[in-house]
TrEMBL record, chain A:
<keyword id="KW-0997">Cell inner membrane</keyword>
<dbReference type="Pfam" id="PF00528">
    <property type="entry name" value="BPD_transp_1"/>
</dbReference>
<feature type="domain" description="ABC transmembrane type-1">
    <location>
        <begin position="62"/>
        <end position="263"/>
    </location>
</feature>
<feature type="transmembrane region" description="Helical">
    <location>
        <begin position="29"/>
        <end position="50"/>
    </location>
</feature>
<dbReference type="InterPro" id="IPR010065">
    <property type="entry name" value="AA_ABC_transptr_permease_3TM"/>
</dbReference>
<dbReference type="InterPro" id="IPR000515">
    <property type="entry name" value="MetI-like"/>
</dbReference>
<keyword id="KW-0472">Membrane</keyword>
<dbReference type="InterPro" id="IPR043429">
    <property type="entry name" value="ArtM/GltK/GlnP/TcyL/YhdX-like"/>
</dbReference>
<feature type="transmembrane region" description="Helical">
    <location>
        <begin position="105"/>
        <end position="125"/>
    </location>
</feature>
From TrEMBL, chain B:
<feature type="transmembrane region" description="Helical">
    <location>
        <begin position="20"/>
        <end position="47"/>
    </location>
</feature>
<keyword id="KW-1003">Cell membrane</keyword>
<protein>
    <submittedName>
        <fullName>ABC transporter permease</fullName>
    </submittedName>
</protein>
<keyword id="KW-0472">Membrane</keyword>
<feature type="domain" description="ABC transmembrane type-1">
    <location>
        <begin position="23"/>
        <end position="223"/>
    </location>
</feature>
<feature type="transmembrane region" description="Helical">
    <location>
        <begin position="106"/>
        <end position="127"/>
    </location>
</feature>
<keyword id="KW-0997">Cell inner membrane</keyword>
<dbReference type="InterPro" id="IPR010065">
    <property type="entry name" value="AA_ABC_transptr_permease_3TM"/>
</dbReference>
<dbReference type="InterPro" id="IPR035906">
    <property type="entry name" value="MetI-like_sf"/>
</dbReference>
Amino acid sequence: MSVAKQLIEAQAPPPIPARPWTTARISGLAAMALWLLVGVGIILYLFAEWDPEKIDRYAPRYFSGLWVTITLVGISIVLGAIASIPVTAGRMSQNRWFSGPAYCYVYFFRGTPLIAQLFLIYYGLGEFRPQLQAMGLWGFFRDPWNCAILAFTLNTAAYQAEILRGALQSVPRGQFEGARALGLSRLQTYRKIILPQAMIVALRPYGNEIILMIKGSAIVAIITVFDLFGETRRAYSRTFDFQTYIWAAIFYLIIVEALRNLWNVLENRLTRHLKR
Amino acid sequence: MEQTLTLLSFGPDGWGDQIASGVLVTVGLALATLPLGLVVGFLLALAKQSDEKALKMAAEIYTTIFRGLPELLTLFLVYFGLQIGIREAVSALGFETQIEINSFLAGMIALGVVFSAFASEVFLSAFRAIPAGQYEGGYALGLGKVQTMIKIILPQLIRIALPGLGNLWMILLKETALVSVIGLPDILRQAGIAARVSKEAFLFFGTACLLFLVLAILSSFVIRAIERSVERSEVRV
């Protein structure tokens, strides 16, 4: 039996090998350098083109455009949410006379471009001017703002109906049966048992729908509603200055990112009882 | 009624041929954008799941920007930005030219960029659904990285990503209507011209909507057929 007579002295750990220059690393650094270049370039460009006179003139218009975008989307989303309830009821109905039209409605508004729907309502209905005047509705349809609200409401109602239906169907049957067994009425069941569970499922899709509407609302600029994009186009057509579009991009990115983060916070907060 | 049919007919009295050419332009633009968006989206997804922080971050920035911008704004940025950028670059070299960017090309780039941003997320979640053992199996058989990707991962990836990509295709088809704003003679623009000349706006925009619906229905058939063909391997006898 041999005994160790000498201990090996403590040694420094081996040096950490240098990170190899893989293709991924090189391309990653190149891509980041490119983004940095783009970012710095945009900032330098905005500084170089900074013109207090233009800012004074157009900044208030941009903010009023921003407000138009936000109110337009806000009103459409709320009205669409209300309109989506009967559509959802129709979609989930066993009766073919209810579910058929609801299906066609949803299919039409989800299958065609929003811009085509907007044109159909704004330009298309304008053709029925005498009839609309006879009904006293011409004042409503003459205004592009009203037409935009109507088109967006009808469009988002179709999408929201699908969100709502998916969320309601995700609630297990046992929940309905449990509520029945407790003697709750249909309305009570929905209000106290089903909707609180369904809304958590629907939260994320609703957030995505709002973001989609904000992005989609840029098309109202084409029917002469001066939302954020409309103001941008007007400013560009007067100054021929490309920074007008850069500013619009910054505004839109801020709204969408703010909304996305708000939604993450909201979701974390509302689902905290589900976390283990 | 007869007048309506005349307006929609082919030939000198009707707008049928113009609208049919619009359908071709719409479908052509969507089909031309698709491979561009798919390839860039796939590369972005690869970048996002790499261990390299810089690469990941660069891809995330790309997605954040192009998912957050309205498609119409992206289109204008590309359309005017490219024209101005090329003009500046050319004048820096000492030449003086006016360059018109083709609206088809601008639409293809803008829609492709947006499509790729969304497609990268679809691919990424599909990548996450594939177990690490599939890669290890590939390496154990002596396949290289690229071969493992092409022969083992990609066939499974397509199967998982297909429903998401199908949705994106439907969205792309609808977004092509935006390119009519910068003058591409697609369905919507041709319908608009016909509406202005004939004063039958409801008829022509209604027709445009129905044509988009038909395209959507046709593509849902095609997507279903592709799904069935890639699901063959799932069949257990």
